[in-house]
From TrEMBL:
Protein name, entry field: Tryptophan synthase beta subunit-like PLP-dependent enzyme
Family: Belongs to the cysteine synthase/cystathionine beta-synthase family.
UniProt GO BP: cysteine metabolic process; serine family amino acid metabolic process; sulfur compound biosynthetic process
Alphabetic keyword roster: ANK repeat, Pyridoxal phosphate
Length: 336
């Protein structure tokens, strides 16, 4: 709610935020020096102690990058949104919270029920945490690319993880989405969240990520770039920034490998139903080799391929979906 509207209603911004609390629009301000304008337009503000880790999902910092851009001759202002500092350790906390809470509101799940998801990587971990918070059971149909350590983490959260192969025909009984449907048929009081076709996936970014990017940059952002797995981040954030006439140029990155891609979260052999190709202003295809090499240098492929867009008065925001610690084997191979 805008500050002036709060004043007309005779309540403070914090009171209005508390009154209007709803799904996945949580803005965490932990420092006492927070400016009142910083919370304008955001529904929930959390100061100090909160009731649940889920309340802090999405409250990730925005950081100015200095030396990495200069090292490759980039003159634009580069900002990075560090999703690794989310309670679930990745950008997927946003969609997990939104999908789980919406299923609860729609009467599709309640404490004690089982939530099922087919996940290549971070979404499974995020949903496991959310179901633990909500008191639900959880089955995650995993890609074989997921590290065994992550499967052990799921088990520690009380989640059942089943590993399935990748690269099998979509119509065969092998794909993880097919197996998730089978689990639902065999499990009473269960529901598939279905991140690939669930409209709450892009909505989480349209209502949450986009707003936070805008307010934390003070509206000073020209280009937003992110990797594309389910395409929920780029679709939702692009829609959210454009809906209010904001002149931002979104860029999505796709893995150019057709099947044997090694990146755990980027690259699928099908197109998710909620993917909006027109939402992004440009799509960049990168190989596993380039992705690993550039990740080590902390440089984004878009900035290398389009030096004409690196003028000093542009602000480019990179969404870093997680961190190096999630992929130690991948980033230390001989690919780079």
């Amino acid at each position: 709610m805008p500050v002036d509207q709060c004043e007309r209603n005779g309540e403070t911004v914090l009171q209005a935020a508390a009154r209007q609390r709803n799904l996945n629009r949580v803005y965490s301000i932990m420092d006492a020096g927070a400016d009142v304008d910083a919370v304008s337009g955001v529904d929930t503000v959390i100061l100090g102690l909160s009731d649940s880790a889920a309340d802090h999902i999405g409250g990730t910092p925005l950081v100015r990058l200095n030396r990495p851009p200069r090292s490759v001759g980039i003159k634009a202002q580069i900002r990075a949104k560090f999703e690794v500092l989310d309670p679930v350790g990745s950008v997927k906390g946003r969609i997990a919270k939104r999908m789980v809470e919406q299923a609860e509101l729609d009467g599709l799940s309640k404490p004690g029920d089982t939530l099922i998801e087919a996940s290549h990587e971070n979404t499974g971990i995020a949903i496991a945490l959310m179901t633990a918070i909500k008191g639900c059971k959880c089955i995650i149909d995993l890609s074989e690319k997921m590290l065994l350590e992550k499967q052990q983490f799921l088990r520690a959260l009380g989640t059942t993880g089943v590993r399935m192969p990748v690269g099998v025909p979509i119509e065969s009984p092998g794909p993880i989405a097919y197996v998730a449907k089978r689990f639902k048929e065999e499990t009473p009081s269960s529901w598939i969240l279905d991140q690939y076709n669930n409209p709450e996936n892009p909505r989480a970014h349209g209502h949450g990520t986009a707003e936070k990017i805008w307010y934390r940059t003070g509206g000073r952002v020209d280009i937003v770039t992110t990797g594309a797995g389910t395409r929920g981040t780029v679709t939702g954030a692009a829609r959210g920034l454009k809906e209010n006439g904001r002149n931002v140029f979104p860029v999505g990155e796709l893995n150019e490998e057709k099947s044997e891609y090694k990146l755990e979260c980027i690259g699928y052999d099908f197109v998710p139903a909620d993917f909006d190709q027109t939402a992004s202003g440009a799509w960049i295809k990168i190989s596993d080799r380039d992705a690993f090499r550039l990740a080590r240098r902390l440089a984004n492929p878009y900035l290398r391929m389009h030096p004409e867009d690196t003028v000093e008065n542009n602000t480019i925001l990179l969404i870093f979906p997680d961190s190096l610690k999630n992929y130690p084997p991948s980033l230390h191979t001989n690919l780079a």
